[in-house]
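PT: before anyone asks, these are the final sequences, not the draft ones from last week. 931 residues across everything. Please model them as a single complex and drop the result in this thread when it's through.
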Amino acid sequence: MKQPIEMYINGEARSVTVDPYRSLLDTLRGEVGLTGTKKGCDVGDCGACTVIVDGRPLNACLMLAVEAGGCRVETVEGLQASPDQLHVLQDAFMRHGAAQCGFCTPGILMMAKSLLENNANPSDDEIRFGLSGNICRCTGYTKIFDAIRSAARQLQETPA
Amino acid sequence: MNKPHVPVEARRAFTIVGQSVRRNDVLEKVTGEGLYTADINRPGLLFGKIKRSNVAHAKISRIDTSKALALLGVKAVLTHEDVPRFLHYGSPHPRSASCTRDQYILDDKVRFWGEGIAAVAATSEEIADEALDLIEVDYEELPGVFDIDSAQAPGAPLIHEVGPGSNLVLPPVRVERGDVENGFAEADFVLEGVFEGGRPVPAYMEPNVCMADWDGSNKLTFWTSTQTAFMVRGSLAEVLGLPLNKVRVLVDHMGGGFGAKQDLFQHEYLCALLARQTRRPVRMEFTRAETFIAGRSRHPCRILLKQGFRKDGTICARDMKIIYESGAYGSHSPGVTTVGTNAATSLYRCENVRLEGCAVYTNTPIAGAFRGYGVVQAYYALDIQMDEAAERLGMDPAELKLKNAVREGDIAPSGHPIVGRGLEACLKHGITAFDWIAKRTETPRNDPAQPAIRRGWGVGCEMHGSSAYPGIREQGNATVKMNEDGSVTLLTGAAGLGTGAHTALAQIVAEELGVTFESVSVVHGDTDVVPWDIGAFASHTTYLVGSAAKIAAGKLRAAVLARAAEKLQTPTEALDMVAGRIFIADAPDRGLTVADAMGPSKGIPADHLIETGSYTPTKSYSFAAHFVEVAVDIETGLVDVRHVMPVHDVGRVIHPIAAAGQIEGGIQQGIGHTLTEDYLIDRTNGRSLNAGLVDYKMPLSMDMPKIETVILEAAPDPGGPWGAKGVGEDPIIAIGPAIANAIHDAIGARFHHYPITPEDILCALAAQKKE
Ligand code: FES
Ligand code: FES
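LR: through. Structure below.
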């Protein structure tokens, strides 16, 4: 039987009716219509589906939508404050060439956001460890590290 | 050779080419708004799934779909009895030399474990999955062959009725230059080795996906994640019996391809057929496991390499036999075999070469096109053997490689002369910048602070062609439009795999035209709209399509200047255009903007201008030398790549950050190939053993070394825009032998295979102890 749930997605209350076996990822991409979050494996191995739920980054493919009922869910679509004001991380990813095909990018952006929220000045090792669950197959990660370091610096200078 | 248009005026300093401008497709990528194929929805969408065989080699004696069809929500089921029996190339270069016509959309014979045998369309993915289980299949199993040796054994079961027989995909490729016997007779010593390569997969992050929709006029619209949209169009039209203008292929963003997404996959045909049968849109999306099982890997291989050397380090003879394992279908084996075999004529100079390349069918998943296209394997062997020769000669390996490096005027694998001295430039630069000699000779291998660690340094080299010449005569096309307000639209068929190709093309257009980068927008990914394109592969987009775009932009510049001349009442030759402003060269204050030139003025209505460019290149070669440091843990066998300095010659760099990104991503994949990645097939029954991202181990954020990328413009090629050559495939080739050579430097053990696992390291160390 489908179940009605309510989530606060990127600050907005959304009601959806979902099958109890439906993942948060499929619900976001399907019922909710936010396709920015990507499906690279659907089994928790790649991090492309990383979203932030009640302040914690997790793989949306591993969480049932019904478990997210009542939760605050942040996705890549909510990163920018307004249509013409990007998040510092988004801007840094563009400047440093951190997105090639871009398929891993939404997940990595959300993971990086969470990382910087918990650790404003991460060391290189902490950045590497923070991204250890996010696969990027295009970049060799070098430009992603550059972007996150630069965003961290910028956030410290002018906190968002 | 069709040389690109030479601009009339003398070249000013570059203003856009060579700048890391903001990529024109990246905003959508960081906001999540970019549409990848799986993000697109249609009303009434059905979900397609494929039933896969659970045996490796068999005749299907019975297949019963009645129960599946009876399931509520199932709209269609297709088996080999329901689809056109059409032998196709499995890859989108019909009638080219690269591919093999040996696949049916669905067959009554199964040739590998996991091959698709039926397809279902249903109203949800869950129902489609359930329906797959309801399809009943009886197999008459056939004996299988699961490796090169059993496939080539006398009396081995034959996998295909087509082809030259003996499980060969194509007749052996033979290349001979000079006199090999004489060469060996002159040698002071001969080195001989057997090299083996595993089965790495591209593992692009976006699983293969497509969606088909037919309209009332019997026209197919087909969204798919492909590098070769026009080839998909051609192949689908051929199979479906449609004219090309009744198949429209669309691809906007795609999540990587690395070469493999230039095949036309079984699910793509089936998706179109399911949609036709149900008259509803159908989407088919691979699971991650399917990207392994039904995707395309690099060809596993065995190489026998024998070279004769003189005391001064000259190579006097080279004899190589390379056997590629093609898996159950030919796919790109003819191309891979030809390119890989011919590659061994070069890199290190040798006048007497005898090469033979074969590709062999086995009952395993299909090997196809993958970044490095047969060359990764050949140069792994060649470069490691050069290292062995240096050791034998008591010479520094970088010095020996430099001495033998291919150079200006040498005959390239493609048969035409090499331009410039790119490889020497890369080696020389790296020897100094990496401080190679001091590292190799003055740094102790032991690290007192970490007693289990042995350090080592290695260098590996490569060269790789841009364009598939001479195998395929390519054509690059571009249309450039100047709108009435002075903005510019570039139409290109080149795919955007993620490399930044569209940005590079827009830079080339802006530079040649004399307008700002921001004023150029790019339309791509719609076969009904953009000019024909051969596909994004062979590291050729910048070289091939870039040249076409430059030609078109050059013509457009002339047309715009002619229009401005009319308005300014001055001869066209007197005009110049920079950053969107047209002015009289001798009186720069007198001029007008491009917008003014294009817009209406008294007596002259507004205009827009369209120009096209077409370009048929031969080939250019890019070069690289990779210098690496590894740390080998002699207790665990783990190899840590600590530092890589890739030095690449790309002729002319269009977008430095994008070029560096290609290099660094290639190194990541190459480290994986060499140390951890291998898609394993059970050699007794053909089953996949590690079709997932946890069991198939790729280098991730914790594993990446420090990379100091160096890009040189040492040997510009006249065939590319301002000398630009490709860079996409090169980086994955040189890193492998560099790592293997560095491991040898660290622990004294030579490895002739990849991946080199911790177990291999520990076994080699144990064997050393015994000696
Ligand atoms: S899609 Fe969720 S981890 Fe891969
Ligand atoms: S940019 Fe392609 S996977 Fe990360």
